[in-house]
Specification:
8 strands, 9 helices, about 375 residues
Length: about 375
């Protein structure tokens, strides 16, 4: 290793160490709260034991880590620069002409590398585990319907206690929700095939699917025409949309294909497109936290106040976290364009943090 790389490597190693410390520490704390909340929700379900609660908590952990990453990066940067300042290493480096951009660069490189690792490698694993968590939650806590979206259209499962129904459609129309063409496979409670119905469409009304002009084919029976067949259901449009694969259960690599499938059958793809853009923007949001941490380090070097630094950092991270969620909510309900909703806060945070750092460096 050349002499020019000794200091950047040292600063980067210190930051990487604190990044792991805060990653595991904050994840562990939030994990305990998640377990407590899941146990509270499972209190009224006698078939949900602690083993299931623990499995749900572990499979939900990747989503938890995804949410707290900005806090992890911010506090890792704050404590790295604070320790370097307390040990006089940062002060000595500054005295020999090392600029804020130079001592911050190793942390920025580590953050971008971690962000890309999370995006390309950890996110697919987390999406798979989060999908498992959603399935366990739907099975044991919420009892939600199951919906599956593939390149061959939409599949929806429901049960009335006596029979099980598998509904299929190539296309979807909204207001009211209309499946077309509709195919309904019927099974008994034991899973034995009973027959199928084919119709031009099935319309979701209050408490039932209206299936006009349907042909019923039963095993070893002649096909019969049903002019106005109804299938009672407890489903609503909101329940069906909620049961569809949530964006955070689909890996970064699979989101584009899923978005195309949604668009092809007529379902809104806004939430999934927003998730895809947000994943792309996340490394830049994490980078802005490094810039803010460096700005706090310069201020602490001049004015002191570790407690003030910690409180200010926490308020800053919370503010950007809440604001980012608010803007994404506006994008999710189509008040704002998807790209603007996903990129607005990361870009603003990056520009603002650079401005603050530049002011502190020149001041």
């Amino acid at each position: 290793m050349t002499k020019r790389l000794v200091m950047p490597f040292y600063f980067g190693r210190q930051y990487g160490l604190w990044l792991l410390v805060f990653l595991f520490g904050l994840s562990g704390i939030v994990f305990l709260f998640e377990i407590a909340e899941l146990m509270r929700r499972a209190a009224g379900h006698h078939d949900v034991g602690f083993a299931i609660v623990l499995e749900m908590g572990l499979t939900k952990l990747p989503e938890t880590i995804e949410h707290i990453l900005p806090f992890v990066v911010l506090f890792a940067g704050l404590f790295t620069f604070w320790r370097l300042t307390r040990s006089q290493e940062l002060i000595v480096a500054r005295s020999v002409g090392v600029s804020a951009w130079q001592f911050m660069a190793p942390a920025l490189v580590v953050t971008f590398a971690f962000g890309l690792l999370n995006l390309f490698c950890l996110n697919p694993l987390g999406a798979t585990l989060n999908g498992r968590y959603k399935a366990l939650e739907a099975r044991y806590l919420d009892h939600m319907p199951t919906l599956e979206l593939t390149g061959a259209g939409l599949w929806l499962r429901q049960s009335d206690g006596k029979n099980r129904y598998l509904l299929h459609a190539d296309h979807i129309a909204m207001n009211p929700l209309t499946l077309s063409p509709a195919m309904i496979l019927i099974y008994d409670s034991q899973g034995k095939y009973q027959g199928r119905l084919d119709a031009p469409q099935a319309v979701l009304t209050n408490g039932a699917w209206d299936v006009p002009n349907a042909w019923q084919n039963e095993d070893k029976k002649q096909a019969s025409f049903l002019p106005d067949w109804k299938l009672p259901t407890h489903l609503t449009l909101n329940k069906i949309q909620e049961s569809m694969a949530p964006p955070d259960t689909i890996s970064f690599w699979e989101l584009p294909r899923f978005i195309r499938a949604l668009r092809a059958i007529g379902l809104p793809e806004t939430r999934h497109a927003l998730e895809f853009q947000s994943q792309l923007a996340q490394p830049f949001l994490l980078a802005s936290m490094v810039f803010f941490a460096a700005s706090f380090a310069l201020r602490m070097n001049r004015n002191g106040g570790v407690a003030r630094m910690i409180v200010s950092g926490g308020l800053l991270g919370s503010g950007f976290y809440l604001l980012n969620n608010l803007i994404k909510a506006l994008g999710s309900n189509q008040t704002l364009p998807v790209v603007l909703a996903a990129w607005a806060i990361p870009v603003i945070a990056l520009a603002l943090s650079n401005t603050v750092l530049l002011h502190m460096e020149e001041g």
